[in-house]
Structure formats: C-alpha cells, structure tokens
Q: What sequence folds into this?
C-alpha cells in the first residue's frame, strides 16, 4: 500500500547478516510504495574468476585522444528554488568523433526522501529495454549506503516532466520530510488523504471489478465473433452444395451426397446462430453491468477530483512522486556500477567499498543481482580476481551487452584497459582484453556503458566519453581508428552514462545533479 508522506517506516532488514545493510536502517516510505523487507539472499561463492595476464604482453593501441577535464576541479552551483533555472547545454569540442550536444532533461532532487543523509549525491544511471530508468542515490562518502530508484520514462512524460526540467525536483522537494516546509506539506496531505481514504478504496475496488467484467465481456465478444465466423463458413458451404445438388451436370451419387452436406450445413448454421445470439445477449448484459459499475466509479472519482481541484499543485506532485519505485536501502559501495543485463533482464551493482584493489587475497569482490520488477535481491556473487603474485583486483565499473557478456575497465598507465567475461547465474569469469587504449583523455574512471544500438563499450571520465567496439574488446582487434570520442568543455563532474534502445546517451552530471540527454545517437 502507499505510505503517507510523513510516515517513516523502520524496516528490520534481513540483509544485515549478509553485510548488505547496516544495522538500524530505516527507509522513508513517503507516497511511494514501501520497499519492505528484502529477505535472505542466495550467496554464490566463485573463488578466483580472473584468467591472469602478462601486462607486458598487452597490445597498446597508440591513439590520439582529445582532452577532457584532467584537473578534478568542477563547476558547481545551486538551483534557485524561487527563481528561474535554465537548463544546461554542452556540445562536443574539437577532436570528437561526432558533433552532438547533451541538454538537461531533468534536474534531480536532493533525494527521493529515503534517508536524512540525502544531498543529491547520485552516482549511477542505467536503462533497461522496457523504457525504465534507474538511479543510485548515495547517502554520501564513507556510508556505502544508498537506494535504487526506478521510473518509467513514458509515465513521467505523460505527467509533463519532459516539458519542465525542474518538475521532478519540485515534486520531491515539495514533500521533503527533512525540511520545515516539506513536513508541513506532508501533514496537509496526510489530513486530506485520510478524509479521502474511503473514496480511494472504492475507486480501487470498483476499478478492479470494472476491469474484470470488461475482460469477461471481451471473452463473450470473441466467442460471438467465432460463432459468426463458423456460421458464415457453413452458410458458404451450404450455398455451394445447394447448387451442386440441383445441377444435372453432376452424377446422381454426387447430387445425393451434396444434399447430405446441405442438410449438415443447415444444422450447423442453426447451432452456430444459437451460439451467436447467446453470446450477443451476454455482451449486452455486460454492457448494462459495466455501465452501472462505471457510474459508481465516476461518483467516487468526482469526489476525489473535487478535492484535488482545490489543491492542484499538491496532487500534481503526488502523481509524479508515485511513479517512483524504491529499493530497500542497500550497500551500494562506490555506487558507480549500476547496470542492466539484457540477456537475463536483471540489474547488477558492485559493492566496492574502497576505491583501490582488495587489501588481501582473502577478500572478495561482491556483486548484487536484483529483480528490476521488485527491486529486491536475487543473489549475491562473491569472487576474487588474482593478478600476478599478490594482487586481488577490485571491480569498480560494470556493463553488459545484449548477449550477456560482462565488461569492466580500469586505468592502466596513461591509458585504459578492459576486461570481459560472464557474471550471471551460469557462472563468473573474466579475462583481460589483449589490447588496451594507450592514451585516455580524462583523469577519472567514472564508469562504463554499452550502447545497444552500435554495440560499443564506452568508458566515462570527466568531460570525455571514449568508446571501442565490444567485439574489439573481446578479440583485442581494434585500432586507433576504431576508438571514438565525445569530448566537452563543461567543467562538470560526469558520473555515469546509459543508453536507450536507439543509442541516445543519458548522462548523469553533478552539481547540481541532473540527467542530460544527447541530441543524437552516440557513435
């Protein structure tokens, strides 16, 4: 059920024993569905999954990359809640492989009211293949805690979010329970909501009954159509064999047999006509019943609409907030690995709680696999990645292609190297790409993403996106000319990149947090 805006729901998460949740976690349910308890998680312990490699044997692709932001110094500003806030627009600069622009799609709120740690610290974005977008909201440095928030893009568009870049921000700021004004709005909504609860319940019940009766009526309509089809079939057959039975061009035996078919057809027509009339009558009765249910539904809905009309702003924000679906609060690690696997339809998140490799060979990489429909865990993978005599590599980036191949990458000397393999219910394995990008144009390693439209793997650094064909990553067969770039001069912190099915890029940038969309599919 929907929780009231002011209601803080303390959830005793069972993840604590698996090290995913901190003790005493609480989730702010607000108007969004309460994420509830996560339950126990299946643990998959895979041991060492990395095929070791010789760094000196790797092929360096000596590329010439444009430069992104190498300074780790960023342009930051705050949104003005009382004034006009312009969207941002960043176009590619010289050295890029294409001319395109990232424009502000939405400014993101301080948070989705999951925790009082919220401060707009979004770390990852990913999209699935059904038009849903997912964000990781981090509680902040050293907490390693956060939540995944899911939206359906079409629903947000229907509510006008795409025509007002601040609307999503406004909706969650309006009901921010950690501000005095937001708390007051929560209390006002709570009072109105309690008064309308009876009408809400009736609308819910009647809507279910209405849809059920429409479904039953649709069955009768289909039965009626089927009866009409077979009536016409036998009518046509009767006409054909009536002519044969009366024509002396045919033998006596043929005419006699035709008369039998005519008799059978006449009987079948009568039977199917009876069936047609019966289902037609039932359809008419359902029309009367559905009309009555709809009238009742309209009465209760008009009561709700009358109250909503007195405070349209509040209920506009309620509708927007209720499009969000929250996960339980989870261990998100650094938070920059949220990714969707098109092969099994699941989302993944690495719990990398340090920014370095693992401290010892006894430590594990831990990756959480989640159901995108419920945002609840499916299983947790624990594995090591031994390199050389002592290193145990840690995964800080992650992406999947349409066939379920998994990719991650890390800085290597002045360049960037990739790893590929599998990470799913069938097993975990990785190996280094035989070739690496010799010169990277950015300082930071913010994430990786696969573009499903062109099957390229992008690694994200501040003010520059660099990509290589996924086939080249696996084979090691790529050259300087195969490496593409989208470089910018925004001064912003690029946190994460995702793609829709048409290849348009969705860029998560800070500060303020915003989602930007490319004007063209990225090449």
A:
């Amino acid at each position: 059920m929907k929780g009231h805006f002011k209601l803080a729901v303390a959830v005793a998460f069972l993840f604590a024993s698996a090290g995913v949740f901190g003790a005493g976690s609480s989730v702010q349910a607000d108007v969004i569905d309460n994420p509830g308890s996560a339950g126990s998680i299946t643990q998959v312990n895979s041991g060492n999954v990395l095929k070791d490699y010789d760094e000196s044997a790797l092929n360096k692709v000596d590329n010439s990359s444009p430069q992104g932001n190498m300074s780790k110094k960023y342009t930051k500003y705050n949104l003005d809640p009382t004034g006009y806030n312009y969207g941002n627009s960043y176009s590619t600069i010289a050295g890029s492989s294409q001319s395109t622009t990232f424009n502000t799609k939405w400014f993101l709120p301080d948070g989705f009211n999951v925790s009082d740690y919220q401060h707009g610290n979004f770390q990852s974005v990913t999209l699935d293949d059904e038009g849903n977008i997912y964000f990781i909201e981090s509680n902040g440095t050293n907490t390693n805690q956060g939540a995944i928030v899911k939206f359906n893009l079409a629903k947000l568009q229907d509510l006008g979010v795409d025509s007002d870049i601040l609307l999503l921000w406004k909706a969650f700021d309006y009901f921010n329970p950690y501000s005095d004004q937001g708390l007051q709005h929560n209390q006002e909504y709570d009072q109105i909501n309690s008064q309308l609860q009876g009408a809400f319940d009736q609308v819910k019940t009647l809507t279910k009954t209405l849809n059920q009766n429409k479904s039953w009526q649709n069955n009768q309509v289909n039965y009626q159509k089927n009866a009409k089809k077979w009536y016409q079939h036998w009518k046509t057959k009767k006409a054909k064999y009536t002519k044969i039975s009366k024509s002396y061009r045919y033998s006596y035996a043929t005419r006699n047999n035709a008369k039998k078919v005519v008799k059978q057809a006449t009987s079948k027509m009568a039977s199917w006509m009876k069936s047609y009339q019966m289902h037609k009558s039932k359809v008419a009765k359902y029309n009367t019943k559905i009309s009555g249910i709809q009238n009742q539904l309209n009465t209760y809905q008009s009561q709700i609409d009358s109250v909503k009309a007195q405070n349209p702003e509040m209920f506009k924000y309620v509708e927007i907030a209720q499009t969000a679906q929250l996960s339980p609060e989870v261990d998100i690690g650094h938070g920059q690995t949220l990714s969707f696997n098109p092969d099994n339809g699941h989302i993944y998140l690495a719990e990398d709680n340090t920014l370095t490799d693992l401290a010892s060979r006894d430590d594990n990489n831990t990756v959480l696999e989640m159901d995108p429909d419920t945002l609840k865990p499916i299983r947790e993978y624990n594995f090591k990645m031994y390199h050389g005599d002592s290193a145990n590599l840690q995964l800080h980036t992650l992406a999947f292609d349409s066939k379920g191949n998994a990719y991650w990458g890390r800085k290597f000397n002045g360049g960037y190297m990739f790893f590929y393999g599998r990470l799913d219910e069938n097993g975990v394995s990785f190996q280094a790409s035989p070739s690496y990008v010799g010169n990277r144009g950015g300082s930071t390693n913010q994430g990786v993403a696969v573009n499903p439209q062109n099957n390229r793997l992008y690694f994200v650094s501040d003010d520059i996106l660099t990509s290589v064909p996924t086939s080249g990553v696996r084979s090691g067969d790529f050259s300087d000319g195969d490496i593409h770039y989208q470089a910018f001069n925004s001064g912003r912190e690029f946190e994460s990149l995702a793609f829709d099915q048409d290849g348009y890029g969705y860029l998560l940038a800070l500060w303020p947090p915003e989602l930007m969309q490319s004007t063209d599919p990225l090449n």
Summary: The chain has six helices and 30 strands. The first helix runs from residue 153 to 158. The chain has a mean pLDDT of 88.
